[in-house]
Here is the input.
Amino acid sequence: MISTGSSRLNSHRIRRMPLAVRPHRRRHDRSTARIALGAVLVGSMIGCGPREQSGSAPNAAASAAAPRKETVAVSAFLDVAPVPWPTVIRAQGNMAAYETTVLGAKVAGRVESVLFDLGDAVSANERLVALDERDLELQLAQATAQLEEARAAIGLEPGRSDASLDPEASPPVREAKAVWEESVLRKERIRQLRDRDAASEEELQQAEVSVKVAESRHAAALNAARERIAQIAVRAADRDLAEQRLKDAKTLAPFDGFVRERHIAPGTYVQVGQPLFTLVRTDSLRFQGAVPERLAGRLRVGQHVLLWIEGHNEPRRCAIDRISPAVEESSRALLFEARVENRNQDVRAGLFAEAHVEIDPDATAIVVPNSAIAEFAGVEKVWIVREGVAREHVVRTGDRREERTEIVAGLREGDRIIAVASEGRAGPVHPRTSDGGPRIAGGSDGNAAAPPASGAPKRTSDAGS
Here is the structure.
């Protein structure tokens, strides 16, 4: 019984225990409700405020975040269009002198004086060096004396031409002929006497033999006369040869030109063929270039050539005048020459040059000014304009000539670009003019007002178009 009562008492306590803490929970719930109600009231007050104030903070933040885009003024726009752009082959070579010669000694002798030196201008037939001519003069005198001796031997009078010489008219021949004729007459007289028995047969035979001997002596005299006439020709040739050697001692310039090199000095004894001077003719020059064998079939005599010579700002125009008949086996290249006038002597022989050979003068291409192209890290770009907004556009360039560059890829006919790439900015653009109106440059042929080219990098292409 006692234990049963204790159990009931404990269970009663347990059931009554929540009643002891219930007043505290109500107070907590009331506090929470008051806080929530206050938050609702504050929110209502904020919501009832002016609309302008409620939206001003987000709009200000958005305005600060978005950059203001201003229209950029540029020098000019350029409308892209195909223009005449002849197809060219590029070839490298050098400017050779039109003529180069090494003058050698034609006779041996000692050099007395050298009349010209390096860089001196010489005229055709002007004497360049003087040799000791005393020995040559003596040889000429000796040959002349021997010639006169031969003329006298044949009976040729001084001053008379040897062209009129007749062997029959020479004194020895005339003498032999007279003896022969006399022997013939004597034989005839003896024959007549023999017919009258006034002369013996032996005398007649002796007369006949005398005729034959006289005839032989006449023939011998005639041959000797002819030999003497031939000897006159030999002596005359010796005299002419000695005279020519004396002339050859005077070395003369073969053409108008310049001394490129002097090989001798006064006092030098030169042998036949030894070099004396090297002369060059530079009033005209020869550009000597070569093209690969794959392009050899496109070269023609008369094709126009534009030459860019090292150290000269302006190109020279000329034409191909000679083409080698065969390809060089070692280099597999075809050689050609173009003559360049150089009357002012402003181009020196030996300079390096690059030739642009026009093989298709009627070709066209998309071409823009150099100033319209910007290059950075090897990438070439232009500023293309569409609907008044500019943006960068990558292009691939080809041949560059003077102030213009060929666009191989990246642009097509009708595109509009900014004429000066350094003025380009991403965004709205308009051309700057003095009167406020639009300024559009002409086609890419450069006929319109040309924009400044200071912003364009210079480049030289190594490949032919």
